[in-house]
Design goal:
The protein is an alpha/beta fold. 33% of the residues lie in helices and 21% in strands. It has a 7-stranded mixed β-sheet, with helices on both faces. Strand 8, helix 4 and strand 9 form a beta-alpha-beta unit. Helix 2 crosses helix 3 (133-141). 41% of the residues are buried.
Length: 344
């Protein structure tokens, strides 16, 4: 797999003068099987935040089916592609009203189910915690004896999380303040799709878990009906240019096994977001009236309610909009043994 130190290219081909609105981009390939054979399946704009002009492209690995942004922004463009009004920086009741209240209750039920079987003094880590939304829920609905921590790269989000009284490190999973083999549960909620190297992320999460510890991953599902309907341009899960690697059941199992985990379960869960944003993206592209576009947003109770019910129909046959994967660090294998296997 190519790394983040590749020779950069511009999204505007080989022009010597980088336009003011062009992002610095890098070619990449599959992070699961390192395959170089891929097919282009979709292209679109940054419909949501308009951080850069021009088209972005989604490729699918011919060998394992991973969908990935190619080329993708250089890591130096991080603050540009995540603007100050990015929704994950401050998902609050003040900003989102009734939608926030409903989501908070639904997420509380999910989070507590993931915590079944962990000890009363468990250490829980949220990687890519954003504004601390999920940690705040665990604090309010879970056991007070749980030790809750988060880590996130964005200082803006970390500042908001800390203001809530949540312990968050401004950094990544390689930060030395995160002690190896010390966490009972790690959660990756809508995070793995944002990183350049998901295998490295999973490997480091493995090292942070105690033997027997659990990792729960939630991410977009590329085997879902919403992907099939909108993959050519408008699928909300592309989230151009912020989602870099997108999985199905098969390849997320494959990369987890490669990182040393046992796979407990990979299922799907209901989400209205990609359905809602797929319609929104289409309307934006067709230059629909602003009032119509805003009917399909994270603040729209009408569209979110409708697509929740709609996606529930697909969830009944195990094909919801999101993947929900449970991985476990084996009790009997230490870090050195797994590292040796990963290097083979």
């Amino acid at each position: 797999m190519l790394d983040v130190e590749e020779i950069p290219i511009l999204s505007s081909d080989d022009s010597e003068d980088k336009p003011n609105d062009a992002l610095l981009m890098r070619e990449t390939n599959c992070c699961v099987c390192s395959g170089s054979r891929s097919e282009r399946i979709g292209s679109g704009l940054d419909f949501e935040y308009s951080t850069a002009a021009g088209e972005f492209h989604a490729d699918r690995c011919v060998d394992c089916g991973l969908v990935f942004l190619n080329p993708r922004p250089d890591v130096s463009e991080f603050e540009r592609i995540y603007p100050d009004n990015y929704h994950a920086f401050e998902f609050s009741e003040d900003q989102f009203g009734f939608v926030y209240k409903v989501r908070r209750r639904l997420e509380a039920n999910r989070l507590l189910s993931w915590c079944e079987g962990i000890p009363a003094d468990a250490r829980i880590l949220d990687i890519g915690c954003g504004d601390g939304f999920h940690l705040e829920i665990l604090r309010d609905f879970g056991l007070r004896t749980w030790q809750l921590e988060g880590v996130d790269l964005d200082e803006r989000a970390v500042t908001i999380a800390r203001a809530k009284g949540i312990k968050v490190i401004n950094g990544d999973v390689s930060d030395e303040r995160l002690r190896p083999s010390s966490y009972d549960l790690i959660i990756l909620i809508q995070t793995i799709e944002h990183v350049a190297d998901p295998f490295l992320l999973l490997s480091r999460a493995f090292g942070l878990l105690r033997p027997g510890g659990r990792l729960v991953v939630v991410t977009d599902n590329t085997d879902s009906p919403d992907f099939a309907a909108f993959q050519r341009r408008y699928w909300g899960g592309y989230h151009f240019p912020r989602h870099w690697n997108l999985f199905n059941r098969s390849n997320i199992k494959k990369i987890a096994l490669k990182a040393g985990f046992d796979v407990e379960m990979v299922r799907t869960q209901i989400s209205p977001v990609n359905w809602t944003y797929s319609i929104r993206n289409l309307l934006c592209d067709r230059r629909a009236p602003r009032w119509l576009v805003e009917l399909f947003s994270l603040k729209s109770t009408l569209s979110l309610s409708f697509f929740t019910m709609f996606d529930m129909l697909f969830q009944l046959v195990g094909n919801g909009a999101l993947l929900n994967a449970y991985f476990r660090r084996p009790e009997s294998r230490d870090d050195n043994e797994v590292k040796h296997e990963q290097d083979q």
